[in-house]
């Protein structure tokens, strides 16, 4: 059984940790483009920064990440979103409406330095009237530095993916995960071939980094994937 002194210390730590966490989740930045949801890697980096600051405030030791997450969950301040191949962490602090994270926010949480592209960018700029069949985010890497993309991982599914033929999955990039049956991919793009990128506010929790409307890929390039979209024209 924990001693009263250790319990008092833990309560003080959690209160200080929560105040610091709320401050950091207050506004997204280019380095931290969304505070709506986090990967475990993002959580670990965030918690490490908070620990360093609290150590300077007189908290030499701290509970594990799992214990902190469990405490936040018990207090209805955190829950997990389970995808097929990934887990996302949502912190529910403040007076927000606690809406589930959008697909664009999930993309930015998955690859914080990435750029929303392909069908996801077309949808973001409202250039299509159809539901996005799969989401993409790009890493901008010069060709000489691009690693070879491994074949997409295969996750068990109750039904086959009707939107993407198996033979086309490798063309779409590397599969990160599936959420609500929709696949999310990461691709590699040459920054010298990308004329424009813009960053927009997306609600109060996110900044979306996306190809500009004039640089969104030519719809004809998608025909090889067997998917037709309706595009609005000016």
Summarize the structure.
This protein has 234 residues and is α+β, with helices and mostly antiparallel strands.
Give the averaged pLDDT, no decimals.
81
> What portion of residues belong to β-strands?
15-25%
DSSP summary, beta strand count: 8
The N- and C-terminal alpha carbons lie at a distance of 69 Å
- Please state the structural category: alpha+beta
The parts where pLDDT drops under 50 for at least 5 residues are 152-162, 218-234
**What is the succession of H and E elements?**
HHHEEHEHEHEEEE
**Count of discrete alpha- or pi-helical segments spanning 4 or more residues:** 6
| Inertia-based shape | elongated
Largest sheet: 4 strands, mixed
Describe the structure.
The chain is of the alpha+beta class. It folds into two domains: 98 residues; 121 residues, no CATH class. Helix content is 29%, strand content 20%. The protein has six helices and eight strands. The strands form three sheets. The protein has a four-stranded mixed β-sheet. A hairpin with a 2-residue loop joins β5 and β6. α1 crosses α2.
Q: What layout of secondary structure does this protein have?
A:
Elements: H1 4-24, H2 40-56, H3 65-74, E1 78-83, E2 86-91, H4 103-110, E3 115-117, H5 118-124, E4 135-140, H6 166-169, E5 174-179, E6 182-189, E7 197-202, E8 206-211
Parallel strand pairs: 4-6
Antiparallel strand pairs: 1-2, 3-4, 5-6, 7-8
Helix pairs in contact: 1-2
